[in-house]
Amino acid sequence: VKFGVVRFPGSCDEVDALLACRRSGDAELLWHGDRALKGVDAIVIPGGFSYGDYLRVGAIARFSPVMEAVSEFALSGGPVLGICNGFQVLCEAGLLPGALLPNTGLRFLCKQVDLVIENPNTPFTRVCAAGDVLSIPVKHTTGRYYAPEQALDEMEADGQVLLRYAPGQNPNGSLRDIAGVSNRQKNVFGLMPHPEHAVDPLTGSTSGGCIFESIAAHVEQLATV
Amino acid sequence: LRARVLIRPKEGILDPQGQTVERALPALGFDGVSNVHVGRMVELDVDDVSQVGDMCEKLLANPLIEDYEILVVER
Lengths: 225, 75
Hints:
The structure holds 2 protein chains of 2 kinds. Chain A contains 5 helices and 11 strands, in the order E-H-E-E-H-E-H-E-E-E-E-H-E-E-E-H. Chain A is of the alpha/beta class. Chain B is an alpha+beta fold. Chain B is 28% helix and 29% strand. Chain B has 2 helices and 3 strands, in the order βαβαβ. Chain B is elongated, with a radius of gyration of 15 Å. The interface between A and B is medium-sized, with 18 and 11 residues.
């Protein structure tokens, strides 16, 4: 499997994402001005402050040349993972439902949280089981997940809520404790916590690795069909 | 023409910034204030003001979470 990690001006977690991907396969960086995706099998939109987060988080990045290619890749069924700012970008681009609003407490948060796997039957969670708990850090100011109630009901019914904050640990006021959602087709996934920061015992937890392992397993399965 | 776009959180969406300002005002002796909301403003000179609505839908606002209002002002 070959991962492509997008680097925007203002990205800051692309190197950690690259290193996390390399534990499960090959990975290389994709520049925001490139339209070519270099034959990658999966794409990661990393965390950071793309284009300075000007106007609204993710609002400008969605118009970059690479995002046109990423949209085409996603619409053709390719797996796309958005982490933190990447999640915000995918929502702004309309590839994921909903939007991220400022944390209820209006403060930047940086803390380890427990997350519960809600739907293990996706390319991003397939090596996990329902109810598995992951310990992964969050670090953001704009992480309050919002979608209209009716849309939330439809997403829940459709299994699009892949990850929830463990009971009592919702750090940002996200509706229904939602930490990560997918599109209806389950090939685009965004989450506010940072699995790429939880892959090495040095930083306290390795439970983020399952997201990258799942993507690798998904791509490898597709290749053998 | 000069257009002024006022963007505010959609009604019903929790606006902690507005709430914080609302709580701060009585502390300064301003009573009788309610429904405070904090948004942002974009000003722009445009040849064709009829395009501004489309700009709002596509970039200046996120219609899922924000309402916008377009005012035309004298340059």
